[in-house]
Design brief:
Order of helices and strands: EHEHEHEEEHEH
Strand order of the largest sheet: 3-2-1-6-4-7-5
Number of strands: 7
Largest sheet: 7 strands, parallel
Radius of gyration: 14 Å
Strand content: 15-25%
Shape: globular
Distance between the termini: 12 Å
Structural class: alpha/beta
Helix content: 25-40%
């Protein structure tokens, strides 16, 4: 139903947790290279438990390749630089929710390629730097699912 896009993820357990998230909520996971780990990494597999076979995961050389293959209806970037809270969006099925590398987030160039209203933030206490990648993905995708009846027909 929704696309979770990880641009250059670096930490295997985060991606493993998001694989598990996707397997349990029906989202498709898209990984944009380069990855900071090998897909056979045991930490990745351990975090994803036995959900790897249940998740729909695709690998791309770059973001452009993802766009050409998927043609998402809308793209929302999740960033601490966003001005719009994630819960102020009316999410629609097949939206792409894009998250950047754990240590640096999405590039300014990437963020500038999107309308400002498509750059979303998760509210945090003043002085906080960021949330864990897998936690951030879960927060946003479950809000999108909630708004869409959790996939119910």
């Amino acid at each position: 139903m929704f696309h979770i896009v990880l641009v250059e993820p670096q930490i295997p357990p985060n991606t493993g947790n998001i694989i598990r998230l996707c397997a349990n909520c029906g989202a498709k996971l898209h990984l944009i290279q380069p990855l900071g780990f090998d897909l056979s990494d045991r930490k990745l597999k351990r975090a994803g438990l036995d959900y790897h076979d249940m998740a729909n995961v695709a690998l791309y050389d770059n973001f452009k390749q993802f766009i050409e293959a998927v043609s998402p209806q809308r793209i929302f970037a999740c960033s601490t630089k966003g001005q719009r809270n994630y819960n102020q969006v009316n999410f629609e099925a097949w939206d792409a929710l894009v998250f950047g590398p754990e240590t640096r987030g999405l590039s300014t160039t990437f963020l500038n390629s999107l309308p400002a209203e498509n750059i979303l933030r998760i509210p945090m206490l003043k002085g906080s730097r960021s949330l864990n990648l897998s936690n951030a993905a879960a927060i946003v995708v479950y809000e999108a699912l909630r708004q869409n009846g959790f996939g119910a027909d």
